[in-house]
């Protein structure tokens, strides 16, 4: 296991790289990428921002990380999310963009006085990936808690509460649990078998929870090797939590290095920035230590913000 200091900085940088690589191509379909495969940072396409600019994925991750450096305080965390949404905090240029509908409504509920843990959407159509995109801070926070890590009731509650700030449907909570457990286990032991075992570990936990048992079928295939042998054409790369996890884990199980996994994720299309961001984050752990491609890193905006947020976290007793 590499040091937390190294892995946290590496994974947050990876979040921003995958995010920025996918931002210009958000919502493009796979046919587009078949003709115009992406391999470098671009600007001024889907959004009118310079090359290397990251979006909500990285901003909310930074906001959550800084909040957790002060302790687990969901009012503080939602306040920081609101500062991002309304005033452009935690962004390279002082302006937020590309916010998901469910996340937006959750922040607006919080601004209207709703308790943070009751702000998240709970409808069937609220199962977007807005909580998955910011999973890094809570995974590292959990790793740093005293005692031996287990994916048990205590861990699940922390992850579920964290997700419920914006996404509170049981399916979103299960998705967050699967991704958080995979992230923690890769921090501890980086290899593909560990990742697959972590997915199965989370599925087994939820199978024994009456509240979540009926959601497990949406994710069972993630624990089966046959799923990863499917061709790319079978993978749906939308912002739906099930499709997002399918895309991320499929890319990781079908790649052997960071660069290849991230390129593969972005070129799946549709929700290119979030799928690229989550894939890059896990790939930075799976293939640690990672040397980021200079043609991506040199163009990445807001690198000082990333460094500062990690420094704040590592100077606190919570990481």
UniProtKB/TrEMBL annotation:
<feature type="binding site">
    <location>
        <position position="57"/>
    </location>
    <ligand>
        <name>Mg(2+)</name>
    </ligand>
</feature>
<keyword id="KW-0378">Hydrolase</keyword>
<dbReference type="GO" id="GO:0046872">
    <property type="term" value="F:metal ion binding"/>
</dbReference>
<feature type="binding site">
    <location>
        <position position="273"/>
    </location>
    <ligand>
        <name>Mg(2+)</name>
    </ligand>
</feature>
<comment type="similarity">
    <text>Belongs to the ADP-ribosylglycohydrolase family.</text>
</comment>
<dbReference type="InterPro" id="IPR050792">
    <property type="entry name" value="ADP-ribosylglycohydrolase"/>
</dbReference>
<feature type="binding site">
    <location>
        <position position="271"/>
    </location>
    <ligand>
        <name>Mg(2+)</name>
    </ligand>
</feature>
<feature type="binding site">
    <location>
        <position position="55"/>
    </location>
    <ligand>
        <name>Mg(2+)</name>
    </ligand>
</feature>
<keyword id="KW-0479">Metal-binding</keyword>
<dbReference type="InterPro" id="IPR036705">
    <property type="entry name" value="Ribosyl_crysJ1_sf"/>
</dbReference>
<keyword id="KW-0460">Magnesium</keyword>
<dbReference type="Pfam" id="PF03747">
    <property type="entry name" value="ADP_ribosyl_GH"/>
</dbReference>
<protein>
    <submittedName>
        <fullName>ADP-ribosylation Crystallin J1</fullName>
    </submittedName>
</protein>
<feature type="binding site">
    <location>
        <position position="56"/>
    </location>
    <ligand>
        <name>Mg(2+)</name>
    </ligand>
</feature>
<dbReference type="InterPro" id="IPR005502">
    <property type="entry name" value="Ribosyl_crysJ1"/>
</dbReference>
<dbReference type="GO" id="GO:0016787">
    <property type="term" value="F:hydrolase activity"/>
</dbReference>
<feature type="binding site">
    <location>
        <position position="274"/>
    </location>
    <ligand>
        <name>Mg(2+)</name>
    </ligand>
</feature>
């Amino acid at each position: 296991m590499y040091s937390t200091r190294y892995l946290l900085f590496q994974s947050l940088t990876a979040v921003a790289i995958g995010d920025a690589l996918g931002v210009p191509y958000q919502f493009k379909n796979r046919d587009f990428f078949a003709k115009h495969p992406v391999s470098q940072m671009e600007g001024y396409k889907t959004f009118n921002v310079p090359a290397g600019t990251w979006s909500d994925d990285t901003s909310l991750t930074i906001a959550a990380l800084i909040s957790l450096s002060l302790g687990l305080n969901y009012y503080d965390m939602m306040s920081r999310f609101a500062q991002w949404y309304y005033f452009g905090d935690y962004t390279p240029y002082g302006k937020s963009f590309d916010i998901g509908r469910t996340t937006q409504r959750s922040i607006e509920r919080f601004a209207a006085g709703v308790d943070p843990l009751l702000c998240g959407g709970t409808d069937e159509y609220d199962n977007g990936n807005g909580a998955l995109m910011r999973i890094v801070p809570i995974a590292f926070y959990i790793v740093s808690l005293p005692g031996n890590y287990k994916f048990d009731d205590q861990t699940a509650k922390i992850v579920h509460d964290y997700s419920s700030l914006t996404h509170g449907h049981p399916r979103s909570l299960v998705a967050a649990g699967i991704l958080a457990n995979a992230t923690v286990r890769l921090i501890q032991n980086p290899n593909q078998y560990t990742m697959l075992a972590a997915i199965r570990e989370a599925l087994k936990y939820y199978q024994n929870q009456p509240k979540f048992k009926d959601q497990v079928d949406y994710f069972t295939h993630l624990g089966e090797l046959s799923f990863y042998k499917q061709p790319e054409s079978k993978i749906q790369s939308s912002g739906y939590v099930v499709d997002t996890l399918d895309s991320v884990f499929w890319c990781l199980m079908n790649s052997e290095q960071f660069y290849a996994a991230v390129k593969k994720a972005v070129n799946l299309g549709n929700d290119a920035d979030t799928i690229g961001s989550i894939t890059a984050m896990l790939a930075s752990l799976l293939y640690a230590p990672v040397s980021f491609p200079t043609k991506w890193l040199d163009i990445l905006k807001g690198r000082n913000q990333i460094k500062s947020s990690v420094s704040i976290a590592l100077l606190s007793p919570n990481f």
